[in-house]
Design goal:
alpha+beta, extended, two-stranded antiparallel sheet, 6 helices, 153 residues
């Protein structure tokens, strides 16, 4: 037996979304959109350029006495887990490429990541961590300063 189909409802047809192709933009529309993205348009339609060039942070702007005391102006005063992973990975890569190991090795077959982690825990790595803000300001922090406030278990 054939199943009867319900009668077609035109109101339902209007509710069903249909995929329409967007009309192609002209070159002038693309340029206008690009200008709007680069600068904020004001009422008089003059774009204001945002200065996002990287530049060191000005310590005179910092008002928090704890940040002034530690010398770490951006982010937490300790090493984040992401920074720790990045440092260990970078150091393991350096060792694999032939960089000298900074600790004495008794066993010839040692994992590169274990070596890098031991060097980090001992504070032997002469590295800096760059922390940046969305405004383009950044601070280069010596790893030794971050390790003072970090628990490495």
């Amino acid at each position: 037996m054939e199943e009867e189909q319900p009668p077609f409802d035109e109101e339902l047809e209007e509710l069903i979304p249909t995929q329409k192709q967007k009309p192609k933009k002209s070159v002038e529309e693309d340029e206008t959109e690009e200008e709007e993205i680069r600068g904020v348009l004001l009422d008089d339609d003059e774009p204001v350029q945002l200065d996002l060039t990287p530049r060191p942070i000005d310590p005179a702007k910092i008002t928090d006495p704890e940040r002034l005391e530690t010398g770490i102006y951006i982010g937490p005063k300790s090493l984040t887990r992401f920074e720790r992973s990045r440092i260990i990975g970078a150091r393991a890569l350096q060792i694999s490429m032939g960089a000298p190991v900074l600790i004495s090795i008794k066993d010839k077959h040692v994992d590169l990541f274990e070596l890098a982690e031991k060097e980090l825990k001992l504070g032997l790595l002469p590295m800096t961590v760059r922390r940046s803000l969305p405004t383009g300001e950044y601070q280069d922090i010596p790893l030794s300063r971050l390790l003072k406030y970090t628990r490495l278990d």
